[in-house]
Amino acid sequence: MPALKGGRSIGVLLIATIMLIAIELLGAAPSVQAAPQADRPAAARSGFRLAATSALTLDVPILMYHHIGARFSSPYNIATQDFAAQMNYLAQHGYTAVSVDQVAAALRGQTTLPPCPVAITFDDGYAVQVHNALPILQRHHFHATFYLVTGYISMSHAFMNWDQIKGLMKQGHWIGSHTYRHTAVGSLSGSALKREIVAAKTKLENGLGISVTTFSYPYGSYSLTAQRVISDAGFTSAVCSVMQEEPRAIIWRLSIY
Asked: Are 2 and 85 in contact (CB under 8 A)?
């Protein structure tokens, strides 16, 4: 079982965090279908489940990555070989990669997920995600959701450019928004908040010719005001790495580092 930093294994983390909280942006659904327990790998069959105020839950781990194999020390950087081992574990234990949008649709009762689903996500749009993580994802036929900071695109060689992002899309990966300048939206209001959420979404959609419907909160910074702006902008899901007092407003992710 591949080890993460601190001696933890991805299997143990999947057992401890295989959960999904229904999000307010999607509205309520009468029922949700999930894969039967017998169809899930051993790592996914656990009685542990975090409590949620909503009755809508799904057993779906959502993994969050940042730097993969970067040439500097960072708490958000993991070695390429560790990432490869983690993806090998998922493949060997029968996990199927799905998008955050697919998970959100399942919560709305609009679709069902395959047995043993997992959502793989990347934040910030670092170029190392293309250089180091993408070949490993391709090896296992895994697709991921890339949450991009719009203002960072093509800013330097450290970040993806538009052609690289379009290449991800051609290979079947999904694109989400991570604000305009990686700002803590929970502390913003008015025009500054709309720039980070609405203007960032518009620039992504115009640059890529797609509809961007999933959002990632930088720093886990959340507010009801930001949630309303996100919903009004046309996002149908939002992910966060910090548990909030209002759990229906977000989908919680497991940070891997």
From this structure: yes
> Is the Cβ–Cβ distance between 164 and 127 less than 8 Å?
yes
The tally of domains found in the chain comes to 1
> In CATH, what number is assigned to the domain containing residue 248?
3.20.20.370
DSSP string, 137-169: HHHTT---EEEE-GGGTTSSTTB--HHHHHHHH
Locate all alpha helices (DSSP H) within 77-139, ordered by sequence.
80-92, 100-107, 127-128, 134-139
The model carries a pTM of 0.82
Of all residues in the chain, what percent are helix, strand and coil, respectively (each to 5)? 40, 15, 45
Q: Closest Cα partner for 21 from 49, 43, 63?
A: 49
Block means of pLDDT (10 residues each) for the chain, length 257 residues? 49 44 36 42 35 52 93 88 95 96 88 94 97 98 98 97 98 98 96 97 98 94 92 92 55 69
